[in-house]
Amino acid sequence: MKANVLTSLIKNTVLTILSLVMVLTFNACVTKSAFLTSSVVPAARGDVKVKKDNNRNYVIKIKLTNLAELKRLDPSMQAYVVWMESDGTLTKNLGQINSSSSMLSKTLKASFETVSSSRPTKIFITAETQANVSGPGSMIILSTSDF
Known about the structure:
Elements: H1 2-28, E1 30-34, E2 45-52, E3 58-65, E4 79-86, E5 90-97, E6 109-116, E7 122-128, E8 140-143
Antiparallel strand pairs: 1-2, 2-3, 3-6, 4-5, 4-7, 7-8
């Protein structure tokens, strides 16, 4: 009788430990970072998730809330552009967050997803006069701390 109770206890302990290891392993593959509070748009909030895929690329997913309309910024701008720093020096334009009614809803929510072959060390969003700029402007809307 005591042997059955002991065997059952050992099985439950091993299953619990294995479950915990699996959960921690899956969560270790995803890096999540919240954007720091913006001085330009203080109500803006968001987070970035970076995950390595099967092809060894980095999937970058951004979710934003309370992002102000571009025409309401001072001065008004034409595009929100997502930038990535990698290896400490390289800054890359990842693309534009569309502010049309389909992408930036009346509830001021937006999302952005892209893939990069380089591991990001920092992600930030600027307001620009055009979307296809080669370098970031001075109006930084949101920024993460270093990953």
